[in-house]
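During the second year of the project, the team shifted from modelling isolated chains to modelling whole assemblies. The rationale, set out in the original proposal, was that interfaces cannot be judged from single-chain predictions alone. As a representative example for this report, we include one of the complexes processed in the last quarter. Its constituent sequences, exactly as entered into the pipeline, are reproduced here:
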Amino acid sequence: MALTLSVNGTNHTVDVEPETPLLWVLRDTIGLTGTKYGCGIARCGACTVHIDGQPVKSCNTKVSAAVGTRVTTIEGLSANSTHPVQVAWTEMGVPQCGYCQSGQIMAAAALLSKRARPTDAEIDEAMVDNLCRCGTYLRIRSAIHRAAELGAR
Amino acid sequence: MTHLNVTRRQFNVTTAALAGGGMMLGFHMPAHGAATNKSPWLLPTDKEGTEINAWIAIDPDGGVTMRVPHTEQGQGALTSVPMMLAEELHIDWKSVRAVFASANRHVRNNNEYVTMSTAGSNVVRSRHPHIMAAGASARERLKEAAAKAWNVARADVVAKDGVLTAGNRRGTFAEFATAAAAIRLEAEPKIKTPDQWWLLGTSVQRLDIPHKVNGSAQYSIDTRLPNMVYANVVCCPVPWGELKSFNFEAIKGRPGVIGAYEMKMGNGRGGADMQSGVAVVADSFYRAKTALDLLPIEWDFGPNAAVSNATLAADVQRFMTMPGEAVGDNAGGDVFAMIANPGNAKVVKAEYHRPYETHFRMEPINATVSVTADRVDVWTPSQDQSAALQRAANQSGMDPKNVYTHTTFIGGAFGGGGGGNTAVTRQATELSKTLGRPVKLMWTREEDVRHDKQRSPHTTQFTALLGADGYPTTFFSRSIGTETRVTSGVADMPYKIPNRRHERSLQPSHIPTASHRAPGTNQNGFILEGFVDEMAIAGGINPLDWRLKMTEGANDWQAVLKVMKEKSGFRIDLPRGEGMGVAIMEDHASICGACATVTVSRRGQLTVEKVMVVINSQHIINPLNCAEQLEGAACWELGTAWFAGLDLRDGRFTNTNIDTYQLMRINQMPPVEVHFALTKGGTWGGMGEPAGPPTPGAVANAIFFATGKRIRSTPFRNHDLSWA
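Output from the structure prediction step:
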């Protein structure tokens, strides 16, 4: 079934079953592989993207639910890694293996769009679904505070 | 094979301007400019600059390509190997361009890079002699080339910042690269000693970071090739069980489905490479997965379907009544006779247990393989790309010289990318051979957990006799596990109790196992160091003082314990509900201590307030990256010990995803304070693993002081920690 999706400001017509998770349409059909598969049950956050600015787990979001919305992936968060979260992540060298970081960055960006100066507790609440096996959590927390500073400038 | 170049990006020098912000511990960070790219794998056909040796090529613009034979899985090898080369070569760090070396070249040229294995915290600690030697050799050949051209002695030529000088003569490395490439030295130079370093020992930010903040870093699972199809595999849920039948007719008409294929069991138990299973191939992964979910399959589970954690525990108790093999560092008299007649000695006895654990790497196990008539191409997150190459060669029947691995970034390895993901390379090779087109084969997360090669369970019983001064005089340990590593860190403990004996028995199990970050010691940091606290407390001795006393004369251990005592403020007289605990363990030649501070609510809610980690690895080359690795390893094993634990029932694992196999989250992660206590000896220690082992031991020991409850098994979350 042909569906039209707006991803990072570009329209894509895809021929997939409407119940297909958005994750696989992004990765396999459209070719945006920055969004990652981790658990498939919306509990690890590696697949986090924005739909109309809200963070969603794309692994359990049907592609049909994304029709008529604005989907933003890590590739569309900014041109040239200039979003304050990406700048802070780079400055503080957050990623280790990096596999979860697209999801971490998308979750952090969504948090900062709602709370310009989040507390540690607010960060923990917003980021609790994003698993990192390398254990970069401390630097993620620091980098979100740093991004808040950068965003305020 | 031009189609493979579609996703083989040409090498681009990135010039991302990276600000060096203030980091934890206040490390100075040098300016940036050194770079890698988002898919930095090399093939033998790639040309970049003038090759001085297999490791180093110099471009006309002064950029220096450094070929890294080890994988980047978050531990920093793509930065640390160039740092070691640049230290010797003496170039401006900004001119470094890091790429992954070609495994094909390594295999063709008789292991030209010595080894491509990336495991055992080895890249810096064990490989630095030959890596630095390659840099030193290149530097001396550049100097020799200049010396010849200028008619001066090589000793009079200075190589610094990519420039050669002698008196008023001056030339760049690039100018002499071609001449240097032809030079053979009479004697290879010695590598530098740590007191001569200018780059090593400084904090350098990792080169892969820019590609990991915008989704561009290429992982194996991101591989996309023209004409590629997708495979999803399910193997018999009970390892070593076999496929009886499946009914393809039931899914034949589903959209995009190409076929279903039996995956035959691999090369027997020794290899443990491929379990018996079935693959569904379709034009997308989701179509393959949904069709496989609906495929009627019959299994012969075999006799192992009767095995569970409970039956394994019963086996352990049976082995505990039988003599084991004496292993490790034993000394003194007949400990059995002493324990049988303890006299007035205080007896301390306990049994500790840790269950099976899985790697749960963020990138689920996968491989993409293209088999054609004249070559095989492989993308897989293996920690040894040359081993993956040999595996694909073996499975396809292709001469290894015509097999090419493409070294992508790896979404976490932790030992699982060593032995743990060997099956997928064979499975994908087999399917590509059958179908005549590239196959991307992925396991679902559930399959990844079910058929990962797991971490061995450990059970150890301890008995100690205490002397009149409260210190132990006699010590006996009997450890039961499925691997010999069950005694790592125990049978070679630093505590020289006068009469000591360690025994080991291996229990049979059908579950395949492999290395898992700090293998053996990650389990035993909790096991041994919990019992150490039990001995100290029974003897009325402060546990930190106990360890200082019992390691007297072992300077490498004393260095760590003294820093811990000085920095931690360790005390055992905190009010109920609060506690501090210590533990220490050697892993991969580093001695690492941890001091944990916890609070436990009356209802039993545990909060780890802080973990201090003190490490003696003798030397460090990049303090920033070391701190990251220490934080990460502490998180890893604390998370495992606090939350995880595989549940084996009916021969299969039942908690196969993150909802039931729980791990550390950001809201549970304690602050980690890092200290280095370096004694600068001759043997270098590892950094990516050693902070794991002591951390859960320190936390469990802190829980005891907070609650009076001694935890002797993991996960902690299964224990009632409430107190009145």
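Chain B touches chain A through 69 residues (CB under 8 Å). The longest helix of chain B spans residues 128-150.
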